[in-house]
Amino acid sequence: MSIQIKSLACPQCGAGQCAKVDGTPNLYACKNCGAEFVLSDNNAPKEMRVIHSMDAGQFDSLKNLKYIALAIAGAALLVLVLPMIWSAIARFKPAQPDLGRLQASTVYEAPAGQFNVVRVMEKDDGRNDLYQILVNSLDSGKKQGEPQQLSYLRTTLSQDPQLAHFSDGSVYLVMNAQKLLRLDPASAQFVSIDTELINRHTSQLGTGISKIELAGDDKPDAFIVTNNSGERYYVFWLSGQILPLAALFLDFHKRPFASYTETQKHFDFAELTGASISTANAVSPSLLVSYAQKVRKDEYQKLPALSLIASGEDTVKALPEDYLPLGSDWVVGKKTLQESGVTQLTLVSPVESRYRGKVLAQNAQRVLIVFNTTPVTDQGRVLQLLDLTTGQPVWSRNIEQLPQITRGGSYLSADALASGFYLRSDAMTPTLLLSNAGEVLHDFSPKRD
Prior knowledge:
Layout: E1 18-20, E2 27-30, E3 36-40, E4 47-51, H1 56-92, E5 101-109, E6 115-124, E7 128-137, E8 148-153, E9 162-165, E10 171-175, E11 179-184, E12 189-192, H2 194-200, H3 202-205, E13 209-214, E14 222-227, E15 232-236, E16 241-244, H4 248-253, E17 262-273, E18 286-295, E19 307-310, H5 314-318, E20 323-326, E21 330-333, H6 334-340, E22 342-347, E23 355-362, E24 366-372, E25 381-387, E26 393-398, E27 413-417, E28 420-426, E29 429-435, E30 440-443
Parallel strand pairs: 17-19
Antiparallel strand pairs: 1-2, 2-3, 3-4, 5-6, 6-7, 7-8, 9-10, 10-11, 11-12, 13-14, 14-15, 15-16, 17-18, 18-22, 19-21, 20-21, 23-24, 24-25, 25-26, 27-28, 28-29, 29-30
């Protein structure tokens, strides 16, 4: 007996638009949602069997939902497991060696044209100062020579290491004021020259050496050496000369400069003196000057300390023949120039007062200077590269424009290279490598986020 149905509702969507499907007994299909179902009744409770059908798009959609669910579960698992994996890796990862504190550094140009950086690192074991001398390529960081180890018993006389570039391009290292070394560029190793130093000057240093130190900016290419008898000498390494400290002044000023035919050009900040000069904040103003100094091959140099006097001062008016005019407002003592072999002294434009000025370094093309535009310590600090020939700036920046430089630029130092300058904010803080055009070739400051 067939089922008699007057009104049939779809069990899937509830729509009353169902029709019998031909060819299959008791099979109906919903015209609204497409669901198919079978009805049967043999004096028994009605049994409905719903057959869902879907197209390929609907099936792919369900598969994608399955994959998304799996991806979410995988991501959640990674969040839980990843920290444990990193922790396990960290336990087996070799620790970075503790090199200690950076005590001194410089950069030099290798024969192949690359820049190498020298670092002197210090650690201590409670009783001794332990040093490592490291030489690496600046670009790649590749080791250029085997690290060198030095150790000194710590005392109240212990000194920081000192690195210096001499005018012939050689690099020297003074360790603990006791040991003198010179860089061998071929091996990227520092070689002791203590014995060579003593053998050069046996009569003065034959008793042994108790202290070695750099001589200062006004005495290029020189050391101050104290022998074991307590006698102190200037050792001018490149010229091979040695003089007691007390004898230097007279020895230098008796030179026959009039017969010298060669000169070297220099720049300096000449202090302004006289009763009319205002020294606000106890800082004397200065003017930037250039000059040529007479030199002779195989003789040491000593740079002069220059000062200018206002032309209106009473002492100038009383003895005008003792002074050389420099512009309309300033004069300089003739005797100072003659005794130092100085000629061609000129004011560098713009002629304006500067404060705390210093010539940091000079190479064959450029001069690196730093100065304040006001007498206030933390205002108007300027770093400039000057053309050696004209004295005019080729690059200039306020210190505030160079965040790599710390401590307001008050303790800047620099080493001259053939193609640029290596700057330190202080003796232990490497800062920048600048080209002769003022381009930043390398920034040594810690990386900022």
